[in-house]
Write a sequence for this structure.
């Protein structure tokens, strides 16, 4: 009987050891707070604004980032560099079919497909889907304590957003809106 009890105790210890190892090894954390600032460029100027993250998670193996996925609330896009009627006009235009078509496409997603790096410095490959069109992108991501930061460049023409694009319409010259826009992202988890 004593031998049987010691075998059961040993199996229990092994099972608990395995459970705690897998818990420490693979961990997915929810993004608790975020800041996403966009910047778009045109001939002779730029506009900036914010957009809200609807949900997001990051996955880790110990302290090494291994994945993540995010859903962006496209209806929340707004400009922060304008006021009054100019702000209302730009915000409305960004939400229209000329740009993000938020009635038909209320969310965008980013899914991390692979990660390289260590010690908080990572190079991320991901698929970003905007207006139903997916583009493979890569960007550096820095993690310090419980905060991740990244700067992304997105080519809007890859997502069928071609309004006043100089690569599509060479004739617009001084009214061009450049194809790439920036996202400056901070995630707290």
């Amino acid at each position: 009987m004593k031998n049987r009890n010691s075998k059961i105790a040993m199996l229990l210890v092994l099972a608990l050891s395995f459970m705690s190892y897998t818990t420490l090894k693979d961990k997915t954390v929810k993004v608790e707070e975020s800041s996403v600032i966009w910047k778009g460029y045109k001939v002779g100027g730029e506009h900036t604004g914010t957009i809200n993250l609807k949900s997001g998670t990051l996955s880790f193996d110990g302290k090494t980032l291994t994945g993540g996925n995010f859903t962006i609330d496209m209806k929340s896009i707004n400009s922060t560099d304008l006021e009054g009627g100019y702000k209302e006009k730009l915000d409305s235009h960004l939400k229209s079919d000329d740009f993000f078509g938020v009635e038909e496409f209320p969310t965008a997603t980013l899914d991390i497909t692979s990660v390289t790096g260590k010690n908080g410095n990572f190079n991320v490959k991901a698929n970003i889907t905007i207006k139903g069109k997916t583009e493979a992108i890569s960007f550096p991501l820095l993690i310090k304590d419980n905060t991740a930061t990244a700067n992304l460049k997105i080519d809007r023409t890859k997502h069928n957003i071609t309004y006043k694009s100089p690569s599509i319409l060479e004739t617009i010259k001084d009214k061009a809106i450049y194809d790439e826009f920036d996202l400056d992202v901070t995630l707290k988890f």
The two ends are 49 Å apart (CA to CA). The chain has a mean pLDDT of 89. The chain has one domain: 26-188.
